[in-house]
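Shipment paperwork, digital attachment
Item: protein structure file
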Amino acid sequence: MTRSFLSLGLASTALASLAAAAHAAPPGYDKIDTVVVIYAENRSFDNLYGGFPGANGLANVSAEQARQLDRDGKPLAELPPVWGGLTGKGVTPAVTEAQTAHLANAAFAIDDPKGFNEGMGVVTHDLWHRFYQEQMQINGGKNDKFVAWADSGSLVMGHYDGSSLPMWAVGQKYVLADNFFQGAFGGSFLNHFMLACACVPFYPHADTSPIKGQIAVVESDGVTLKAADNAPPSALGGVPKFANDGAITPDFYAVNTMQPPYQPSANKPAEGGDKALADPAAATTLPPQHDVTIGDLLSLKGVSWAWYSGAWQAALDGKNATPVPNFQFHHQPFNYFAAYAPGTAARAEHLKDGGLDGVEFIKAIDDGKLPAVSFYKPQGNLNEHSGYADVNSGDKHLADLVAHLEKSPQWQHMLVVVTYDENGGFWDHVAPPKADRWGPGNRIPAFIISPYAKMGTVDHTQYDTTSILRFITARYDLPVLSGIVARDKALAANNEPPMGDLTAALDLTK
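Attachment content:
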């Protein structure tokens, strides 16, 4: 991925040149009038859908493929415990660290009645899902160092029988994509930028800024974090330690979680400063970004769009609370961009309150008032993120949204994509395709839902998060974002096929 022209301060020139590069939509794409993207959290494909009929799942995995290597490259004799325990405080019965010791070096079912018997209604330990660690876990495509470079021990190898999930039935009815990858290595912060702009945020002059202490120390390969002197040599000895595992690359790209420069943000306003801003002197406040987003391009063509965020207004009103709604500030990508700063007309038009439990978004669905392109982000307790949310609650919310969409006045010409931002640290057996410096990362579940879907099929086409943007770009005759151009070139250079634009899951000849 490359920095866009806007980041160089050439906003009008960039948009003008991009507009000139747009082309007419392919035949049949105009049958879709409404695109809805629903973005859940932190699950690998194998973690929830490894048993889905017809999918490339756990039945295809040999013992050798699942076997994990230690930090020295030798097979682990057994899996380490789940450091800190499988489940957190308040769970009855809790699964302690000691109870997770001595698991075989293999994948295991978290919900196995003969094992831990912890169902999908239980909040488990969180797992590292960070930019460098994920690349170290993937280990050149072998996916055999997930345990070695995890902070959660064996939990990375855990999965569920997802057949009881409401979205499992949705996948059986419509299309489940089993070759869909997260757009970038790492966590939610960076993968929300992938959805918004196929770009990577930048922190200018990071070495002389409050963030300077978070510049990662990386080996010469550009992928491996430098180990700390006191790092345990084996995964059986404890959590990895690094010289500096920061949010910023040595060349000043922000790849791990930072906070928005505008409220709502986890960073409060500066003392005596503008109440609409986050304190710019706080080490974790990202400066306003200036890259071209998919929203900018839609607006350029006069196409209506909105980012609906569950509990957005509650967060603005200071009414966020844990565990409900547990609004996640770094899941709001457009709140990092100067084009959508507080007080701008673009912010008022495009950044919408999805309401508590999504009620405002659902109202727009039921009333047939969705814009041409809608993005919806569930509030924290409904997003399925390990550590603070369970799978069942979020999955029921997703299925309920789909049920409302099916009854919407706009349904007959609608495409709905339900996917996850990233794998949340959970192992998956499929190697991501090799592309550029930023990704793609591990495989995640994705559902393609539409009256035009190839009903009841599993789509094996290679996709990633940018595939959503590819469809939107083609459908609305938009310029192609520079990050997508860069990814295509990188895929070709690595003899990888291009990413699809979701249409392989659709029959647009109907």
